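Format notes (please read before filing issues)

Several people have asked whether sequences and C-alpha cells are stored in separate files. They are not. Every record keeps both together, in the order shown below: the sequence lines, then the C-alpha cell lines. Line labels are part of the format and must not be stripped during preprocessing.
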Amino acid sequence: MRAYRSGETSALEELMRRHHDKLMRFLLRLVGDRAAADDVFQETFIQVHLSAESYDAERRFEPWLFTIAANKARDLLRKTNRRRALDLSSPIQGAGRGGGSGEGTTFADLIAGKDPIPGAEVSAAEQERSVQRAVAALPPSLREVILLAYFQRMSYNQIADVLQIPLGTVKSRLHSAVAAFGRKWKESAENRPEE
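Then the structure lines:
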C-alpha cells in the first residue's frame, strides 16, 4: 500500500493477485454466487483505491481488506435481499485450481466435526446437503462470523477488526452461530425419513 500511495500503480495489481484466492473463497461462501463474488471483489479493490490515503500503514493490510469486502458483501446482500445456499463442498486448500477432484478438507467437514451423529446413518452427500442448508439458513451476521472463524481461520481479534465490532460481540455471535447451526442440524436430523 505504501508503494501504491507513492504512485506505483502496479502495486495495486500485486495486492489483488496476492489476495485473490483467499478473498474470493470468503466472498463465494458469503454471497453464494460466483458472479456476485466477482462483483464484490472488484468493488472491494475500487474501495481500496479510493481509500488508499486513509489506510493506516502501521496495521496489517489483510484485516482492512476483509473489512471492506465484508461491508461490500453486506451491501449486496441487503440490496438483493436474497439468502442463497452456500457451496460448502469446495476444498479449502487448492480450490478452483487445475480442475481437481474436490480432494481435501471442505468447510462442511469443519462444521460437521469428526464425531458421528448418534442414531443417524446418513450418506456423505446427504450430510453435506444438511450442512449447507443449516449454514445457509443462518442470518448474514452469523453466517459471516462462522465463515471467518472456521473457513478463513481468523482469530477473534482479526474477526473483530474485519467486521468492525467489539471482541465480545464476535464471541457472542460465534456462540450464537454455532448454537443456531446445531439447532438447524438437529431439526434436519429429526425430519430425515427412517431407513
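For reference, the curators noted about this record: The CA atoms of residues 95 and 185 lie 26 Å apart. Residues 167-191 form the longest helix (25 residues).
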